[in-house]
Amino acid sequence: MIPILSRDDLKLALRRMLLIRRFEEACIIEWHKGNVPGHYHVSVGQEATAAGVSAAMDTDDILFSTHRNHGHVISRGADPGKSFAEILGKATGYGRGKAGTLHGAAPELNVPLSSAIVAGVLPIAIGAGYAMQVKGKSNVSVVMFGDGAMEEGAAYEAINLASLWKLPVLFVCENNGWGVARVPGQASYHAPNLALTELIDLAKSLGMATTTVDGVDLGDVHRAAKQAREQGVAGEGATFIEVRTKVWPGGQWPELVTGITDITRAWTGEAPAEFAHMVDWFKHDDPVLQVARELNATEIFSRDEIEALDAEVQSQMDQAVQFALESPMPELETAFEDVWPA
How far from each other are the two terminal CA atoms of the chain, in whole angstroms? Predict the structure, then answer.
């Protein structure tokens, strides 16, 4: 369902979802052209999580992310040109080329860092929450992580302390493999080392508020994040939110297996012959199409308005890619600037 937001805020949420999608598509396209170095992780299919949580956040709240961070950073208003330049290792990136794709950040937007160490960012996030509590700030620390983080000891320690000290922290677990049968202790890709069958059970056992939401539903995500934030700033402690999404068919090393997103599929329901086997994705699992479909069906935005917004976003992304490609590489003498000493 559509979140309870003003028309302007709904437009901003849709814009950011579209920008995340176009950003990730650009990553895949430019990688195949040889312009994106190394490995990278995209968040296609998880746009509603980033946009929904960010829409519930205050400007002074802090967001921490993981190796799959592009969408999270963009959702906080990051410049797509600087973000893309960072992925290409360029001097004009947010980290002047040193962070790359796995450690995306936008410090001036209160996205101080992302960690590619699985669960490594959770203890840092509760440290920020502890600082907020001690200073009496009416803000929250939000940490986004994948279901794989629940297999790491750092996750258990962070959740325990956040619950024990009633810290203003939002744990947002993006479970993009929830549709896979979870058999505790079995050697499959999902949950080979977990005795849990429900990810929220750990936080629940430690006395933390928990909820599970549909990751295709922007309204569901936003409502959960908004309530969790209100509880956090009221001194009622942390919340663990499990956001369930279908894993994008592009998998771990992306190909554009569902093609460039055609926003008109939101209302035509058409799936070209080459994507006939992806019909469920277009009809039910793609959050970008789902939100566009609902905004149109509720007459909040017309089809023309949504298509115009998408065209505007695509133009912005084209310019961002061009900016990144034309940006210079860092000078050799800057290699040891802004890094921890050896």
Answer: 51
The share of the chain scoring above pLDDT 70, in percent, equals 94
What is the side-by-side order of every strand in the sheet holding 141-146? 62-64, 141-146, 169-175, 239-244, 209-214
* 133 lies in some domain: yes
What range does the domain containing 74 cover?
A: 7-332
pLDDT at 151: 87
Handedness of CA 13, 125, 241, 162 (dihedral sign): negative
Which tokens hold the place of 104?
A: 């995306």
CATH number for position 87: 3.40.50.970
- The mean pLDDT value of the chain amounts to 92
Residue-level length of the chain: 342
Which residue matches tokens 């935005």? 301
Domain count, the chain: 1
How many CB atoms within 10 Å of residue 141?
27
Dihedral angle, C-alpha 303, 306, 308, 309, nearest 10 ° = 180
Q: By the 8 A CB rule, do 214 and 290 touch?
A: no
pLDDT tens for each residue of 143-189:
999 988 988 999 999 999 999 999 999 999 999 875 556 666 555 54
User: Does pLDDT of 332 surpass 90?
Assistant: no
Q: Is residue 316 part of a domain?
A: yes
Is 270 part of a structural domain of the chain?
yes
The token pair at 294 is: 């609902």
Cβ-based neighbour number of residue 302 at 10 Å: 11
How many Cα atoms are found within 13 Å in the side-chain-facing hemisphere of 180? 15
Q: What per-residue confidence (pLDDT) applies to 339?
A: 77
Contact 263, 306 (CB under 8 A): yes
Q: Is the pLDDT of residue 341 over 80?
A: no
In a domain? residue 122: yes
Tokens at 296, concatenated? 């149109």
Predicted confidence at residue 251, as pLDDT, reads: 66
Q: pTM of the full predicted structure?
A: 0.93
Q: Beta strands 141-146 and 169-175: pairing type?
A: parallel
